Amino acid sequence: MKGKAALVTGAASGLGRATAGALARAGADICVVDLNAAGLEETATQLRALGARALVHTTDLSVRDNCALAVAAAVAAFGRLDALCNVAGVIVLCNAHEMRAAEYERTLAVNLSAPFYLMQAAIPHLLQAQGAVVNVTSSAAFIGEAYAAAYCATKAGLTHMTKALAMEYVHKPIRFNAVAPGGMATNIGNTIKMPEGVDYALIKRFSGLRGMVEVDDVADIIAFLASDAGSGYHGACINIDRGITAG
């Protein structure tokens, strides 16, 4: 991806940071976007050490206008946009009848609405560059997970949105794909709080029998789909979950 530019959300840590690193190693310049300013600066330092140009854009993507501003910042800095990687996500585990409205609304805003508004702003630039969108969904898009109704709904919605956009633009020079990881050792995974009275037998039903997915493995797939090497993929959702959704 030498000479190309990518925008990566959720890039202050975890999968977003790993994805930015994978794209930088492939030669891309990166606009890293997150709410965590300190984490973004750490990511940018790592990217620059790899020889990439890195733009730090701190913003709250749950606000619609901020999504368009993030895309505009990337294009202004690099003069183009070749890949949009929607990695940012939030999860709140709770009993559905106890979920607070603010938690529900933020889950939808970050996991589903923000990717749409980012794609909406990025599509004209990606068409010009013949670029790609990669959305990060989850194994939760394919199986019901107890205590995660809102999260499951957003990830299933984003998976289907990816396919719908792939069909809408099937005759245009742009690609839409998704990656659906299982549980990973990231900040999101490490800070999940279990609801009171949780039934761990239900939690085990969507816990991988082969353990956690490696973050770098997922990042490599995202970078592959974002690059010309993934040109054969359009409307695909690649599950990387160590067999969670196999049966």
Description:
The chain is α/β, with parallel strands linked by helices. Helix content is 45%, strand content 15%. The chain is built from 8 helices and 7 strands. The chain has a 7-stranded parallel β-sheet, sandwiched between helices. The longest helix is centred in the middle third of the chain and has 29 residues. It starts with a strand and ends in a 7-residue tail after the last strand. 48% of the residues are buried. The mean pLDDT is 94.
Overall outline: globular
Query: Rg to the nearest angstrom?
Result: 17 Å
Largest sheet: 7 strands, parallel
Kindly report how far apart the N and C termini lie: 37 Å
Please give the number of β-strands. Answer: 7
User: What oligomeric state do these chains adopt?
Assistant: single chain
Overall mean confidence score, pLDDT: 94
- Beta-strand portion reads 5-15%
Count of runs of 4 or more consecutive helical residues:
8
Order of helices and strands: EHEHEHEHEHEHHHE
Structural class: alpha/beta
Order of strands in the sheet with most strands: 3-2-1-4-5-6-7
Residue runs with pLDDT of under 50 for 5 or more positions: none
User: Fraction of residues in helices?
Assistant: 40-55%
